[in-house]
Design goal:
- By secondary structure, this protein is mainly alpha-helical.
- The protein is built from ten helices and no strands.
- Helix 3 (35-44) packs parallel to helix 5 and helix 8 (116-129) packs antiparallel against helix 9.
- The longest helix has 22 residues, at 134-155.
- The chain starts with a helix and ends with a helix.
Amino acid sequence: MRRLITATLLSFAIASASAGTQMEDLAMKLHPADFPFQVEQLFESGNNASALELAELGLKKNPKSAQLRFMRANALERLGRTNEARKALSDMIAQYPEIPDPYNNLARLEASEGRLEEAIRLLQRALLINPDFALARKNLGDIYLALARECYEMATPALPANKVLAVRLQTIKRLEAANR
């Protein structure tokens, strides 16, 4: 019932108040436990700036909330503020080294900037914490696939007649194209 009430408040706040105060008004009415749900609702509706603002307001009420800190980092990344997201995730790893999700998200940022070895290290750490973390395992596979493509492309000029190499490279390229 409380979630229905807070969802109604969120809808009202988005529709009625000015951008700067609507999240503050909503935050004053929310119980600290309701912030993650509301931030997620904002993500789902594509309101990443409002999600960031509400996560930050929630952290003022509950500064130790790992969930809100993670959501704040996600909002920063979605807003294209990758350096701030990277710092937020690194800080989170330092404070909560037992949570695998920040390692996974930081690895994605590292991989997107070509730092594949660092991304692998982060994903391996996430998998040490939680061996069943399927998304981290998938991301690790994607990085290994990118490394394999890189190696095959580097080998192709020296082995232009190698049919196995050509087939493997084409297969990887098709897999990567299907994932875009």
